[in-house]
């Protein structure tokens, strides 16, 4: 069977679909439900319950019931913010080590838990279609880094799928929305606020081609944050929540109230039979909920504005704003979106299903069931390597359309150097140390005088957003290819933090880069003068020699000051003073034929 399924592996819910007679169809389980809660409960004997049955026991067995696992996929212990660890089950968080989930006397990787959810979806699809499916397209938030994408792919493989493509969620949503609008040329914003993540993407639809112009967002902003605030509010109103069971119960109550307040102006909350025998009763109004939620929802605004700026657009340039993610059912979210973009958002798609529908269409494109649609995606952060002086050398800039291949030639800084260390970095800062290390490897080559050896470094990002780095000694052709795919190799702070840090430090970073470059030039010239004196020193006029030595001293002195202007002037004087020396060297070389 050449068919491919599309899967939205969500923080809160997951869905699976398949193309049927040219239409994307979401598959229901035996109970007729298309939405599978992304929840896994482990029974006493270790058997997993997945989806709705797990959801049902979550309040009773919080320590054995795993939810929101997507927050931990591909992350190391030290990459997790404290608030994110606020779950009712135990996590193992060790610095430099992938996060693990500890439950029922066992330890699981987040991928293993995701794989159980994916396997459940696969079983539903197998049953609905009457034959096994083995190929899948899976969606991820646009800001997932390589490690998180790879971990998602691994989860798919663990579940028995061959993962044909990893697609950004907003891109999938746009695909769901855009099929009937393919003729027109339009720009749309996809505002996706789900349980755990927020993504905003600006896309251009042009005669069957989708291009992502920019993406922004926060991998740790969503309905879960709102649930936490609402839980605290209900606690303050007297909900007794001391033990894990009642905390889990409180969460269910809070979520239920939040959902009901999307349509009702006020709701009554009644919880009987609490620990200790009491009941809980409270009224909650939409106003109250909105007052609590506003600071959280407002955080989406800056991301939207940045995304517009990155796409070099203003709100009126957009033809449509579409909503994705369960949280966009909330009236406050819709109001804030309308305010930011100056237009009412489009709500024709079911916000819970748009991503899965898009994933299914993408699967259809790959299997040949859908034709004439091409998807282009972009890199969320710049990728590069560290070069001399600890500088970041960008090879693929942020927001480049993928798949992409780009390269650059590098040379050696030291005589007879036999190897070069390639440090692969992701981020927007000027100095290598401020960016995230994705991996490191050595390329060896034949020893040669400094500057003679040439190493070509090429970055290739495939359609899944997975990065392959190739380094080649251009003389011997010896090469090394490294796939950046291990979760432990990636140090990931949030992309949001990276971008705002880069803006905050832009001035200092730039001064440091200019200083480093000027310093490298100074050091190079001083070395060259020394080498030249050794070679042709005797043949230089004493006055000229003194002139050069004076200029060289000036450079050395300026190097100590950290004053970039002074060093630039000293460099220029030394350059000027050595003109004759350079000519003498060339002349000698011609005479001796060396
Ligand atoms: P998703 O990750 O897209 O499945 O979105 C799930 C998030 O949307 C969760 O935080 C849900 O509580 C929230 N959500 C779902 N339905 C509603 C609703 N009717 N009103 C408000 N929030 C909702």
Summarize the structure.
The chain is 37% helix and 27% strand. With 594 residues, the chain is of the alpha+beta class. Helix 5 packs antiparallel against helix 7 and helix 12 (542-561) packs antiparallel against helix 13.
Task: Note down, in words, how this protein is organized.
The chain is of the alpha+beta class. The chain has four domains: 5-222 and 293-377, ATPase, nucleotide binding domain (Nucleotidyltransferase, domain 5, 2-Layer Sandwich), CATH 3.30.420; 223-292, Alpha-Beta Complex (Actin, Chain A, domain 4), CATH 3.90.640; 383-487, Substrate Binding Domain Of DNAk, Chain A, domain 1, CATH 2.60.34.10; 507-592, Substrate Binding Domain Of Dnak, Chain:A, Domain 2, CATH 1.20.1270. It is built from 14 helices and 28 strands. α4 crosses α9 (354-367) and α11 packs across α14 (579-592). Residues 486-493 have low confidence and may be disordered. Bound molecules: adenosine monophosphate. Adenosine monophosphate is lined by residues 10-13, 194-195, 223, 255, 258-259, 262, 325-327, 329-330, 352. The site of adenosine monophosphate has 17 residues, from α6.
Short key terms for the protein model shown above:
6-stranded mixed beta sheet, 594 residues, alpha+beta, binds adenosine monophosphate, 28 strands, Substrate Binding Domain Of DNAk, Chain A, domain 1, 37% helix, Actin, Chain A, domain 4, elongated
């Amino acid at each position: 069977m050449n068919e491919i399924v599309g899967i939205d592996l969500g923080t809160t819910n997951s869905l699976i679909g398949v193309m049927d007679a040219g239409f994307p169809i979401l598959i229901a389980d035996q109970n007729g439900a298309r939405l599978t809660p992304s929840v896994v409960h482990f029974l006493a004997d270790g058997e997993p319950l997945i989806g709705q049955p797990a959801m049902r026991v979550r309040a009773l067995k919080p320590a054995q019931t795993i939810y929101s696992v997507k927050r931990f996929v591909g992350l190391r212990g030290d990459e997790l913010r404290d608030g994110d660890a606020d779950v009712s089950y135990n996590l193992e968080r060790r610095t430099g080590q992938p996060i693990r989930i500890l439950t029922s006397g066992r330890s699981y990787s987040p991928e293993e838990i995701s794989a159980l959810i994916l396997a459940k979806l696969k079983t539903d699809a197998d049953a609905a279609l009457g034959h096994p499916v083995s190929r899948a397209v899976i969606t991820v938030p646009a800001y997932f880094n390589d490690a998180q994408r790879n971990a998602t792919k691994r989860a798919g493989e663990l579940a028995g799928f061959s993962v044909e493509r990893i697609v950004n969620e907003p891109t999938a949503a746009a695909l769901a929305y855009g099929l009937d609008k393919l003729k027109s040329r339009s720009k749309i914003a996809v505002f996706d606020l789900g349980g755990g993540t927020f993504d905003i993407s600006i896309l251009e639809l042009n005669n069957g081609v989708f291009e992502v112009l920019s993406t922004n967002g926060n991998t740790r902003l969503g309905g879960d944050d709102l649930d936490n605030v609402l839980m605290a509010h209900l606690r303050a109103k007297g909900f007794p929540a001391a033990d894990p069971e009642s905390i889990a119960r409180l969460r269910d109550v809070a979520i239920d109230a939040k959902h009901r307040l999307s349509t009702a102006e006020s709701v009554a909350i009644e919880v009987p039979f609490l620990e200790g025998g009491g009941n809980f009763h409270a009224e909650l109004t939409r106003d109250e909920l909105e007052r609590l939620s506003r600071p959280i929802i407002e955080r989406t605004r800056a991301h939207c504005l940045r995304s517009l700026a990155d796409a070099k657009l203003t709100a009126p340039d957009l033809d449509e704003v579409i909503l994705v993610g369960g949280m966009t059912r909330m009236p406050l979210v819709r109001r804030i979106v309308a305010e930011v973009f100056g237009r009412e958002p489009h709500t024709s798609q079911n916000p819970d299903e748009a991503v899965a529908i898009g994933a299914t269409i993408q699967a259809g494109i790959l299997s040949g069931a859908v034709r004439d649609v091409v998807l282009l995606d972009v890199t969320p952060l710049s990728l590069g390597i560290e070069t001399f002086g600890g500088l970041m050398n960008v090879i693929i800039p942020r927001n480049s359309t993928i798949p992409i291949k780009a390269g650059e030639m590098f040379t050696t800084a030291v005589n007879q150097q036999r190897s070069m260390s390639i440090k692969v970095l992701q981020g927007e800062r000027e100095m290598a140390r401020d960016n995230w290390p994705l991996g490191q490897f050595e390329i060896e080559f034949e020893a040669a005088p400094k500057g003679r050896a040439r190493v070509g470094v090429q970055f290739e990002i495939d359609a899944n957003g997975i990065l392959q780095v190739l380094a080649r000694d251009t003389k011997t052709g010896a090469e090394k290819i490294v796939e950046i795919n291990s979760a432990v190799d990636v140090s990931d702070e949030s992309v949001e933090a990276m971008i705002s840090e880069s803006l905050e430090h832009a001035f200092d970073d730039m001064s440091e880069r200019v200083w480093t470059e000027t310093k490298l030039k100074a050091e190079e010239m001083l070395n060259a003068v020394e080498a030249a004196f050794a070679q042709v020193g005797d043949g230089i006029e004493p006055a000229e020699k003194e002139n050069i030595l004076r200029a060289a001293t000036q450079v050395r002195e300026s190097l100590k000051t950290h004053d970039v202007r002074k060093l630039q002037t000293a460099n220029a004087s030394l350059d000027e003073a050595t003109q004759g020396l350079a000519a003498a060297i060339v002349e000698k070389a011609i005479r001796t034929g060396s």
